[in-house]
Structure formats: C-alpha cells, structure tokens
Design goal:
- With about 180 residues, the chain is an alpha+beta fold.
- Helix content is about 35%, strand content about 20%.
- The strands form two sheets. A four-stranded antiparallel beta sheet has the order 1-2-6-5, with helices on both faces. Strands 3-4 form a two-stranded antiparallel ribbon.
- α2 packs across α5.
- The longest helix is centred in the middle third of the chain and has 20 residues.
- It is globular.
Length: about 180
C-alpha cells in the first residue's frame, strides 16, 4: 500500500469482527517491522508479548478497563509493549540527559508506529491502549522487572470504518524559522 494512503487509512478501531486468531507468521511479520525502527544508539530495547490464545487474551482483557474490554472483545490478538529500562538514553546505567528513560518510551513509540502501519498494511485494524494494569500484565507474561510496561495494542478486523477525527493543521504544530 502506498505510504500516504496507509497513514490515512490507519485509525484507532473500537469495534472488531470475530475472526481467526493471528498466525505465528503474521506475528513474525509485525515484529520484524518493529525492529526496522530507529532506536537510541541502536539499542533496540522494545519488547513485545503477543497474546493469541484465548487463555492469554482473557488475561490481557482482565488487565484493561471495562470500556476497552468491550471495544476490543473480538480482537484476534493483543500485543503488550514494553522496553528495557536504563538502556536507551543511558550510558553505564546513568542518564545521558534530563529525559533518561523517556528515550526508551520514545524508541518504543517509533517501533509501535511501525507495528501499527505494518498491521494496517496486512489488513488489521488496531487500538493502542495506555490505561492498563501493568502488574497483571507483568504476571501473566512473566515480564522481567527491568522492563517498563507501556501499552496494549489490540489487533483485528474492524467492524466498519473508523471515524476520521479532526486533526490540527500543520501551522498549529510546526514552526519554521
């Protein structure tokens, strides 16, 4: 799909059709796209925990607020995204500037953007959710303590066309001097 069209078509989806679980090959394609994203000193600290079995998907749902459980009930996969702390933006465990671990979040955001665009290119819609119970997710996936749980991404076939919400114009977000 042409890049501009891909960006235009990718929207947050809050209703999914019932579909088959995501295959291992599809998961591999998605995660392969994430590792192509740029990261601080090529540190690649993003980590992905993908739930495709009914048991694991239920554990993820239990870590979400009711409104997100409802809007993603027919998703075919959930991706829990984390990053390894104190690596990106750090040298020898010490922050390189005032942002510290924000660089890990920054890098993960870039990687997640690649994942979202690749998912859309593969025909999957998505919803990024930041309101989640990190400890429930940590326990369910045995996520190490040195990783910060950031988001849950629901994937599936959208039920209908997501609404294109108004966006700010370029002049509101950009200064050219």
């Amino acid at each position: 799909m042409e890049f501009d069209r891909l960006v235009e078509k990718r929207r947050s989806c809050r209703a999914y059709e019932v579909s088959e679980p995501m295959t291992m090959d599809q998961v591999q394609q998605l995660i392969q796209a994430t590792v192509q994203a740029p990261t601080w000193k090529n540190s690649e600290t993003g980590r992905y925990y993908v739930a495709v079995s009914q048991e694991m998907m239920q554990k993820v749902r239990e870590a979400l607020p009711a409104f997100n459980q409802n809007s993603t009930s027919n998703a075919c996969a959930y991706v829990v995204t984390t990053f390894v702390s104190n690596v990106a933006g750090h040298t020898n465990g010490q922050p390189d500037n005032e942002l510290g671990n924000c660089w890990g979040s920054y890098d993960l955001g870039l990687q997640n953007a690649y994942l979202l665009l690749k998912a859309k290119d593969m025909g999957f819609d998505s919803l990024v959710m930041g309101i989640r119970d990190a400890e429930k997710l940590r326990q369910a996936f045995e996520i190490p303590q040195d990783q910060m749980v950031v988001s849950v991404i629901a994937l599936g076939k959208g039920a209908g066309e997501p609404v294109l919400r108004t966006r700010k114009c370029v002049e509101e977000v950009c200064s050219v001097l």
